[in-house]
Amino acid sequence: MRQAEAAEGKKRKMSSSIAEPKALESKGLTAAVVTVSDSCAREERKDLSGPAVAEFLKKRGFQIVACEVVSDDQIKIQNMLVGLAEVAALVVTTGGTGIAPRDVTPEATRAVCERLLEGVAERMRSEGVRKTTLAALSRGVCGVRGKALILNLPGSPAGAVESLEGVVELIPHALKLLRGETEHS
Amino acid sequence: MRQAEAAEGKKRKMSSSIAEPKALESKGLTAAVVTVSDSCAREERKDLSGPAVAEFLKKRGFQIVACEVVSDDQIKIQNMLVGLAEVAALVVTTGGTGIAPRDVTPEATRAVCERLLEGVAERMRSEGVRKTTLAALSRGVCGVRGKALILNLPGSPAGAVESLEGVVELIPHALKLLRGETEHS
Amino acid sequence: MRQAEAAEGKKRKMSSSIAEPKALESKGLTAAVVTVSDSCAREERKDLSGPAVAEFLKKRGFQIVACEVVSDDQIKIQNMLVGLAEVAALVVTTGGTGIAPRDVTPEATRAVCERLLEGVAERMRSEGVRKTTLAALSRGVCGVRGKALILNLPGSPAGAVESLEGVVELIPHALKLLRGETEHS
């Protein structure tokens, strides 16, 4: 209950920077990018991963409706995801998927998703390890909240884009299924 | 409790179409096939996946003791699985593993299994993506209930058989382990 | 609470066979090996897997601070893991990862870990199936407890070493992250 209210507050605060949802929803391929990073949130470090992911998604036909930065705080991440899942078909996070104590993006994502797509996370890792074995340490998940897909990418610009490359072709089909556009037998 | 009773009722209702369990159990490789599909359950669509899976299993030496159809209703699926896990060593479902809101076969399977075999589901997907990347979206699980193995396959006849092909060689060994036939050190 | 006390008791009992923790911690790569096996615990069978794993880890630069044997009893395994995670950076188990009813090592490990590293378990299986398809049946997990990494290997000496080979290169990096030595952005 408190989470829903906080999300509502979040949505209101974000509304000025987000394109009108109704018009965008009809296009289907809307995306929001969230950089999860303490130092970026404190503006001590320039966010390179968020813009790299947004650029990549634009080239693949997505309309970017929000780019946000949030600190490694589970409740803040959850509220952000809840708000963005109402205005974008795809919500992509970058950062906070490692095993350091401050890494809580997967926990926040699990908490707000109704179901997980284990195969998408598996594929990000199995494709990722072709470049670096360390990709196996990513705890990123992919899940569904309402009709939105939420996807956790690693924090480095290269790692984030490489992981996304491994699964981006699945996303338009997944979003159609979530909207109920593909018949269910 | 209510679930067990419902399953008991299910078993009684199904008893006429199922071979005598005692005689079959000694052979070990007994299998039941469940098609999970609203349209097949309403008889609006002919079930092609169930027969395709049954045919494949027969060729691999399994004795098919039941072929059932159930709608995409989590409780109905659970009751069906509970009943069939008492008369077949292997219970295979086809359908309901996707991400559309009506897809609940994995949820039903998790609910009735004591433990999951993540590696079997991983292998179905990793083998499946060799044919179609969309196999990564399957949420199918594999789990153990008592001495039975329950396996979720996708809904299309081709997808179901391809996924099963990727793991069928594991099944006889897994069933032996469940019956305690392989020594435990 | 009772678990912590039991672990404390365990630690005290084990103290004579364990090297002084303070001195070792500074080196980072300390490891404990636990053989989970009823027959080894009853001394009816010689433990070959534990020594094989310890030997392999030594060659990779780990200092072995404990080698223990425990029966396939979930509470006993949990207490053992809790105690060892305080004296070793890496705790490796061998045995009890299968699907026989007595196999409970993954359950014990999940119970004492704060978070799981699904990608490490996936990689042990995906590398393992190159040698034997049966590696897909291993339910072994990898998780974090405090600053320690806990890793479940299969019970056979060959299977245990092969699974470890698939992920050993990840471990030093993972341990650094757990100690907070790599900056978090």
Please provide a written account of the structure.
The structure is a homotrimer of 185-residue chains. Chain A has nine helices and six strands. Helices cover 44% and strands 17% of the residues of chain A. The longest helix of chain A is centred in the first third of the chain and has 13 residues, at 2-14. Chain A has helices spanning 2-14, 21-25, 38-41, 49-59, 74-84, 105-112, 118-128, 157-167, 171-178; strands at 30-36, 63-70, 90-94, 115-116, 142-145, 148-153. The first copy, chain A, is α/β, with parallel strands linked by helices and 185 residues long. Chain A has a single domain (2-178), classed as MoaB/Mog-like domain (Molybdenum Cofactor Biosythetic Enzyme, Chain A). Chain A has a six-stranded mixed β-sheet with strand order 2-1-3-6-5-4, sandwiched between helices. The model of chain A is unreliable at 1-26 (pLDDT under 50). At the A-C interface, α3 and α7 of A face β4, α7 and α9 of C.
